[in-house]
Design goal:
five-stranded mixed beta sheet; 164 residues; 5 helices; homodimer; Aminopeptidase
């Protein structure tokens, strides 16, 4: 069995990336939240101001998984970090260290780009993933709680008491 | 009492922003984590590829607080979001809805820029902040746990089993 080949996604990979996002959402029991389209991914990954970047892992020429990331920013460090939004290995390819190879590739990108941190979030019930991440030296930060404003609540605040 | 004036930070505000970051870190009991410098903030906020943006709130000409944000990305939505990294109102200016004015300004930016989500994280013990965010319609996502790889562990993974 050869090592997986990891390379930046190309524009031709967009239909594949949308498939992988949907497979991941199914695994996370969140498929109803997927509204991304090929057009929105094309704009976001390959448009004039890319919002994110992706890596594709292939094993013997077949897509085994992907990672999608962007740069966040730490005010305390005063520099950008690397944020992993999605990491997914297809079931048939698990147990071959492909997830670890993707994470190692991203860690090297983070170091090369001068990022002080490499961060991501995981569903609390996904203990297999959490154990794996901790085996790599990653630390959970359970004292921070994520908040989100979206939909009607976002529109309401946007239209409200904005100081002009 | 006049409404606060909220405006994008200018390069001349960098020493002020570093002071505000340090004040916030003191409040969060995390001051030892601040290693940002004026030079790193200048590069990150006003360099050729800005990693983040900042808003300054002034009340009668005096700095009352700030917000620092960047764009993240949701694969499920297929588009970018707005991520609030830091929000801080100086103690002397609290109780005047300055935090709400900053959040409303950011919510409007999020809507104008086509962001599907406006997100941030809060320390779990900061119940005053959590109650305030929830009063605005924000929802906590406690099922996601944040992970971080930094320092020696990041270097180790970067230097390790990278598939080439």
């Amino acid at each position: 069995m050869t090592q997986p080949e990891i390379a930046p996604a190309r524009e031709a990979d967009i239909p594949l990336i949308l498939s992988l996002i949907t497979e991941l959402a199914e695994f996370e029991k969140l498929k109803d939240q997927v509204v991304a389209t090929e057009a929105s991914l094309k704009e976001s990954l390959f448009g004039p101001r890319p919002a994110a970047q992706a890596l594709i892992a292939r094993s013997d020429g077949t897509c085994a998984g992907f990672a999608l990331y962007f740069h966040n920013f730490s005010t305390f460090l005063g520099r950008r970090g690397l944020y992993l939004e999605d990491l997914y290995v297809r079931p048939a390819f698990r147990g071959r260290s492909i997830g670890k190879a993707l994470l190692a590739h991203l860690a090297r990108l983070a170091v090369e780009r001068g990022c002080g941190r490499f961060e991501w979030a995981v569903l609390d019930w996904n203990t297999a993933a959490r154990d794996f991440y901790e085996s790599l030296g990653a630390q959970a930060n359970p004292t921070w709680v994520n908040y989100r404003l979206t939909g009607a609540a976002l529109e309401r605040l946007a239209g409200g008491s904005l100081a002009r």
